[in-house]
Write a structure and sequence with these properties.
- The protein has 4 helices and no strands.
- With 136 residues, the protein is mainly α.
- It has one domain.
- Helix 1 packs across helix 4, helix 2 crosses helix 3 and helix 3 (69-101) runs antiparallel to helix 4 (104-130).
- The chain starts with a helix and ends in a 6-residue tail after the last helix.
């Protein structure tokens, strides 16, 4: 795959995962009104986006073919670990926008900004550390 096609494909997958993340957050907010509703929504959204992005990245970006369920699980754990720093970036923007603007819409915009920065960083981490041996 050419580098420009790869970049476009990666960006589309990042948008899909972002939509899954924000959609899951919104679903939690609409259905759960407990004291930790915002934190719960962000955690559920993050998990949803992570799984969606892993499935798309491993198959279409890095052409990863696990040797077994155990190999796939180990790779997912490493993929998730690489996402810890990028998740901190994402959450800092989302919670920062929430704190400053105090609206759901601006919190989501902060989340999107954080996700864009995080996904750009995550691609390079994944390419270098997670899928380096599996890349075609």
């Amino acid at each position: 795959m050419t580098s420009s096609k790869l970049a476009v494909t990666y960006a589309i997958f990042a948008l899909i995962a972002t939509a899954a993340n924000i959609g899951a957050q919104d679903l939690v907010i609409r259905t759960y009104s407990g004291t930790a509703n915002i934190l719960t929504s962000v955690v559920v959204g993050t998990g949803t986006g992570l799984v969606v992005k892993y499935i798309l990245d491993k198959r279409y970006i890095f052409r990863f073919r696990p040797r077994s369920l155990n190999h796939d699980t180990q790779t997912f754990v490493l993929y998730a670990a690489m996402g810890l720093a990028t998740t901190i970036i994402f959450w800092a923007f989302e919670f920062g926008f929430h704190h400053v603007f105090e609206t759901k819409e601006m919190r989501y915009i902060g989340g999107v900004v954080g996700l864009v920065i995080g996904y750009l960083s995550k691609y390079h981490l994944d390419k270098r550390y997670v899928f380096r041996m599996e890349a075609v």
